[in-house]
Design a protein that fits this description.
5-stranded antiparallel β-sheet; elongated; alpha+beta; 5-stranded mixed β-sheet; 13 strands; about 650 residues
């Protein structure tokens, strides 16, 4: 066994480093090439001596020359494995043809040895090389056969007894060579398999001891057998059905999620979109068994650039998600307390309006879409992002299915409201028993008493304290306009308030104030231009919004104006015509703007596009007995004017 051990060491050391450290199959093929050299060199030594002894020195020298040429195989191997294989096969064909030519031609035993060339090529370079050398061997045999049919006769340089002895030796050695090559092939294959098994065991140990889940999935959604053990801890044992995809397993049986990811999954393999873009459309999170998992994707590409499979990397981020939720709730609570301390009356109005909206939603109001949209806008303004997000999600669902909200939809919004307001509800209940009087109001009362005004005037003055000054309402919605403009990249907005000391009864005006948020959002999103556009039009970069309350005759007039781009009536006419609404006159176009579901936007965002905002405001004004009008000039701006009667008298008061 010592010679075999030495030869094994020589084969290993002679294998080029770039092959020795590469793919296990390449290592196996390189080892085979060198073992073929070893086997052939033994035959060179044997047959060169045999031909010399049998009186064929020319043949003996040719065999020795080929033996010398075989020593160049390691050098060729360092450059190319494929080149080394073809070089070996070529030398085999050359030496066998030369021997056959001098030892009997078509009937020479060397000619039968030519089958070794395609065998060696197949074992060391694969089927394609084997096919090529099989064709060469067949062509070679056909050439000898054709020459024999044409009458060519080969004269052997050997005596008849030597020819017979050589034939026996050749057959025996051919069997030995084939057997040796088979043994070498088996040994190298076992070595490769062992290396792969060890690699797999090492990978298995890694996969069984990592906190992330790794799994490779093909284009059909079927997973490879190699995957992290933690996946079964998270999702349970997968289906044993060989045709099953992994999506029901990962999603906990959620058919909607499975269908959703399946659609995006096909796009990752069809080659229409860049793989990065296709992967970006796939879900980034999976929720299963009350746990949340972050998912990232790594493509496995073929030599032709096609996607062969994707590696999914899953991480359990449940604790992080819960921590983020807790942090968001903490921020919401802080925002609520801040609003309560800064704008107690406005906060109470928002709270009461939200409770009324939820009550109407539970009762099944036909105005559900408007109410949800109103609650979303006001909740966002007061910092209740979880409530605003819940409303937005329900809005998307309603828009997609075109049906009224279900009990589950309403429950989703109520649940978000309950969680967001749980900590402040008790405080707010006690707050409602308190009444806040501004120092200016108290000073005004003291002056009236000092001037000995009549009791009825004093009573009216004190009663007016229950009404809210419009300057506070305007300040609130103006703040919302400024925040939204900054968020949309439209820069700072100057807010101008002309309240004229007016107070209005919240009982009458609260629904209008709640819907007024929509008008402000529309003005910022649709009307106000970006700073560079305003500069090109010769306007100040900072837009201006004006809020005004005044008494004109027997009416209360509320105006919200902006110096934006104004209403694009042609766009309104186009959309109105598409919806089958009257669109010939400006009055008809104004009514279209105020109709439910009308929007000049082609896409929906969390700010606008659903056609609910202005219709909600128009309905609130109508229910309060008022009229909503619109005045606009293209390029100059828009004014929304609310006109309501001063009656009933308890709805209105003026600060003296």
């Amino acid at each position: 066994m010592a010679p075999v051990h030495l030869l094994t060491r020589w084969v290993h050391r002679t294998t080029p480093k770039h092959l020795r450290e590469g793919d296990p199959d390449l290592v196996r093929r390189a080892h085979l090439v060198l073992w073929v050299v070893v086997v052939l060199e033994t035959q060179v030594a044997l047959f060169s001596a045999l031909y010399w002894a049998l009186g064929a020195p020319v043949v003996s020298c040719v065999v020795l020359a080929v033996g010398v040429a075989l020593t160049a195989v390691p050098a060729v191997l360092r450059r190319s494995l494929t080149a080394a294989v073809h070089y070996e096969a070529f030398l085999v064909m050359v030496i066998l043809d030369v021997i056959a030519w001098y030892t009997g031609g078509l009937h020479a035993p060397a000619l039968f040895w030519t089958v070794a060339a395609p065998i060696i090529a197949t074992m060391t370079a694969g089927r394609r090389a084997g096919y090529a050398w099989f064709a060469v061997a067949c062509a070679n045999a056909a050439a000898f056969s054709t020459m024999a049919l044409l009458g060519y006769s080969w004269k052997s340089t050997l005596a008849s007894w030597a020819q017979s002895a050589l034939t026996g030796a050749a057959v025996a050695m051919l069997a030995l060579v084939v057997f040796a090559l088979a043994m070498v092939y088996e040994a190298t294959t076992e070595a490769m398999t062992g290396a792969l098994d060890e690699s797999n065991r090492g990978m298995r140990r890694v996969l069984d001891n990592v906190e992330q889940g790794f799994i490779m999935v093909d284009a059909e959604g079927k997973a490879s057998a190699q995957r992290s053990a933690i996946l079964e801890q998270w999702f349970g044992p997968p289906s044993q059905n060989p045709d099953a995809t992994i999506w029901p397993w990962l999603s906990g049986g959620d058919e909607c999620f499975a269908a959703f990811i399946q659609g995006g999954w096909e796009a990752a393999f069809d080659g229409i979109f860049p793989i990065e873009l296709a992967i970006d459309q796939l879900p980034k999170h999976i929720i299963s068994r009350d746990r949340t998992f972050a998912v990232s994707y790594r493509p496995v590409m073929g030599e032709d650039g096609a996607t062969l499979s994707l590696i999914l990397v899953l991480s359990d981020v449940t604790l992080q998600v819960e921590a983020d939720k807790a942090q968001r709730r903490q921020r919401e609570h802080a925002a609520l307390f801040e609003r309560l301390t800064q704008d107690r009356r406005g906060f109470h109005q928002f709270w009461d309006e939200a409770e009324n909206i939820l009550s109407d939603l539970r009762a099944g109001t036909p105005n559900a879409k408007r109410l949800i949209h109103t609650l979303k806008g006001n909740a966002g303004f007061f910092g209740l992002e979880s409530v605003a997000n819940a409303c937005h999600a329900v809005e998307w669902n309603l828009a997609e299915h075109g049906e009224p909200p279900t009990a589950d939809d309403v429950g989703q919004i109520e649940g978000a409201w309950a969680k967001a307001t749980a900590r402040i509800a008790a405080l707010l209940a006690s707050e409602k028993q308190r009444f806040e009087v501004h120092v200016d109001d108290l000073t005004q009362l003291e002056d009236a008493i000092a001037r000995r005004v009549e009791h009825m005037q004093l009573a009216g003055l004190v009663k007016g304290w229950r009404f809210e000054q419009t300057k506070h309402t305007f300040g609130r919605v103006g703040e919302h306009a400024q925040a939204l403009a900054e968020r949309l990249g439209k820069g700072p907005v100057n807010i101008v308030i002309e309240d004229n000391g007016m107070r209005l009864d919240p009982a009458t005006w609260a629904p209008i104030w709640a819907s007024l948020t929509h008008a402000v959002r529309n003005a910022v999103d649709h009307g106000i231009e970006e700073a560079d556009v305003r500069a090109e039009a010769g306007k100040p970069k900072a837009a201006t919004m004006r809020f005004c309350s005044a008494v004109r005759g027997s009416d209360v007039v509320i105006e919200i104006s902006d110096d934006g781009g104004g209403v694009n009536w042609e766009r309104v006419r186009e959309k109105a015509a598409a919806l089958g609404l009257p669109h010939q006159t400006e009055d008809e176009l104004t009514l279209a703007l105020f109709s439910d579901g009308f929007s000049t936007r082609d896409s929906v965002s969390d700010v606008s596009g659903r056609g609910v905002g202005l219709s909600a405001l128009a309905l609130s004004v109508h229910e309060a007995g008022g009229v909503l009008k619109l005045v606009t000039a293209r390029g100059a701006g828009t004014t929304l004017r609310i006109i309501a009667s001063r009656e009933p008298p308890q709805a209105f008061a003026r600060a003296s």
